[in-house]
Structures are given as structure tokens and as C-alpha cells.
Design brief:
Elements (H helix, E strand, L loop, with lengths): L4 H25 L2 H10 L7 H4 L5 H17 L8 H7 L5 H14 L2 H8 L7 H13 L1
Helix pairs in contact: 1-4, 2-4, 4-6, 5-6, 6-7, 6-8
Amino acid sequence: MEISIHQQKKATEVDDEELLKVIADFLEMGHVENIVEMFKQDCRYYDWVGQLLTDQRFAVRLGVSVLFEYLIEERPNDVPLAIPSLSDVLKHETPWVRGEAISVLSIIGTVSAIAIVQTMANDPDPQVAAMVQDILSAE
């Protein structure tokens, strides 16, 4: 029996959703080293960083920051791959999601990442705007 392309795509999407949940759960449990290894093996996970930052669990979001602290040391040329995903969540309605994305962009620290942070200087949320100012003044 042949599986259609549509069925294959749907199965991949389900697998990706499950894998995203596993990554979030591992980050919550503090198993960042495992996730570092996953990111080193497959760069497509950088596309999921924005989604991870929308997780309600603070430990997951903190884990993303810790993950990028490791990755910036071990894979500095790969971390900018997360910039498009992070840029997407800068439009999120929830201020803490935007703040988390700004924080990770500051860890990435490339010229393009900081330029994106700078675009958030007038964020409607005063805490987000203050965070941006702190990051830019440290540059």
C-alpha cells in the first residue's frame, strides 16, 4: 500500500509536534545538554525556537536561554538560524513572549540580531522597551 504525499506530510507534522513537546519537556527538566546535541545534529530545530518561547512554563523559556548560551559557544555560526523564528514572535501579543525573544536575540548578539532588538525600542509594553534599552546600552 502506497502512502500519499499528503499522508506523509501529515505524519511528519505530527512527529514534529511530538518532538517539539519532547524538547520543551527536556528543557523544563533541565536536560539542556541533550537538546544541545539535538540542535548540533539537525539545524531545523532553530526554526522552532520562537514556538518554544511561547510555552507557558518558565523553566522551558529559561532552558531556551541556557541552550543558546551553550550553542553560542559550541556553534556560533549556527545560532543565527534562529533569527527568523525569533523575529516572528516579536509580533506576539503577549509582552513576555516578545521579551523572551529579545533576550535570546541578545544572546545571539550578531549585528543583525541586535538590529532586530533595536526595532523593539518603542514596544508598547514599558518592561519590554526597558529591556531593549538595557541591551542596547550594554552593546
